[in-house]
Amino acid sequence: MSEDIKNTSCRDVPDGELVRRSQGGELAAFEELAFRHEEKVYSLAMRMLRHEQDAEDVTQQSFLNAMENLQSFRGDSSFSTWICRIAIHGALKLIRKRKSRSMVSLDETAGEEGDHGTIPHPEYIADWRESPEELVHRNEIQRLLEEALSGLDEKHRMVFLLRDVEGFSVKETAESLGLTETNVKVRLLRARLQLREVLTRTLGDPDTRVVRHHEHAR
Amino acid sequence: MKCEELLAMLNEYVDGTVDPSVCMEYEKHMAGCDPCKVVVDNIRKTIILYKEGKPYELPLTFRNRLHETLRQKWPKSGPGS
Questions:
Q1: In what helix (H) or strand (E) does residue A35 lie, and over which residues does it extend?
Q2: Which one is the CATH code of B3-73: 1.10.12, 2.60.40, 1.10.10, 3.30.2120?
Q3: Cα angle vertex A105, ends A103, A110, to 5°?
Q4: How high is the ipTM of this complex?
Q5: Tens of pLDDT along B11-39?
């Protein structure tokens, strides 16, 4: 990080105070907010868009939009939540633009294979060798997570990211993606099960592997 | 409750939005069904990992460019004015 351009007087100041100072015209306070949240925003954009340049564009535009609308931010949510929502909105807009070029809609539900079909049943079932807290800081685990996420269809990935990673409610996820709540629930279940399957094949302890002694409906 | 019924309501159980009476049935089933118990545990951990992860580092050149842009665009009379 470019420590030289960070304003030391803003360190240890809570986000809420930085927002107030920014609203009062203090650029250094706004820059500190950007330093604190830019990586999260960029990661979110990368996860949604899978494209570095697009993720950079969305990240930059999100902070510019936040700057422009700072006076309307009343602190009902945290700054982090607010800026992430701006980024999600921007990323979805870009995805829709991409889709319109290829004549496919993000919220297209017609002809969706499997949304109303049977639920794929878990195959590899085993306790994980380590806790998420132990795993989360390791680079190879982050790579595994992103590979697994890339393996999801976009329609499943978006629902998982909004609902499980960003904490949107089912209703908010449905509204953001132009889906019904039922669609959101089905897609979320499929995404969760698929990610669980992929991660458990690497993170599961084979010694604890359990085999179903009765068949799930397929 | 059968495994497939549990699977169908997995979201509601993991999210804590399941009806209390169904929740009891769910837990009763899991007490006697290791595979379902482990699947639920795996899914909870999967969600935590994604939620807590910081998958991408901000490219340094982009960080510098972003802050340069923010400084350029910062209105002299304050934001939103």
A1: helix A27-49
A2: 1.10.10
A3: 110
A4: 0.89
A5: 999 999 988 988 999 999 999 999 999 99
* Closest by Cβ to B3, choosing from A67, A192, A214: A214
Q: How far is CA B68 from CA A148, B61, B63, B71, B72, in A?
A: 35, 11, 9, 5, 6
- CATH number, domain of A58, equals 1.10.1740.10
The string of DSSP codes covering B2-31 is: -HHHHHHTHHHHHHT-S-HHHHHHHHHHHH
- pLDDT, tens only, A86-139: 999 999 999 999 888 775 555 555 445 445 567 788 999 999 999 999 999 899
Among A51, A86, A101, the domain-final residue is A101
Nearest to A44 by CA among A180, A157, A171, A191: A157
The first and second tokens of residue B22, run together, are 């169904």
Domain count along chain A: 2
Is any Cβ of chain A less than 8 angstroms from the Cβ of B69?
A: yes
Residues of B in contact with A31 (CB under 8 A): 67, 70-71
For residues A200 and A129, give the distance between their C-alpha atoms in angstroms, rounded to a whole number. Answer: 10
Query: A217 pLDDT exceeds 80?
Result: no
pLDDT above 90 covers a percentage of chain A that reads 77
| Residue in chain A nearest B9 by alpha carbon | A189
Q: What is the average per-residue pLDDT within B32-50?
A: 95
CA nearest to A200 within chain B: B42
On the question of pLDDT at B76 being above 50, the answer is: yes
Scanning every residue of chain B, which has its alpha carbon at the shortest distance from the alpha carbon of A199?
B46
